[in-house]
Write a structure and sequence with these properties.
Elements (H helix, E strand, L loop, with lengths): L1 H33 L19 H24 L1 H7 L1
């Protein structure tokens, strides 16, 4: 029983200590970050000079589809052989 009381007292003291110390530590960590200058990006966008043509769109979409779907299709095509090897 004596050990339980000691443990409860230590836990209570630790809880009080951390509740007082935590805001001070956090203030110390964030205080220096508040003083750092933050650069602001100056991004200005204009409408495109030329619109994309049908051929350019077709080439772009086809290349994206091939890039993403070809590896997935390859894996699905050979899935049974991968299962047999493993």
């Amino acid at each position: 029983p004596d050990l339980g009381l000691r443990l409860a007292a230590v836990c209570g003291a630790l809880r009080t200590f951390t509740s007082v110390l935590t805001p001070l530590l956090l203030r110390g960590l964030t205080g220096s970050a508040r003083r750092l200058p933050v650069p602001h990006a100056r991004v200005h966008s204009l409408p495109p000079e030329q619109k994309l043509g049908v051929l350019e769109l077709a080439i772009g979409l086809t290349s994206c589809m091939v890039t993403f779907l070809l590896p997935a299709g390859w894996i699905l095509l050979y899935l049974e052989s991968y299962k047999k090897q493993g």
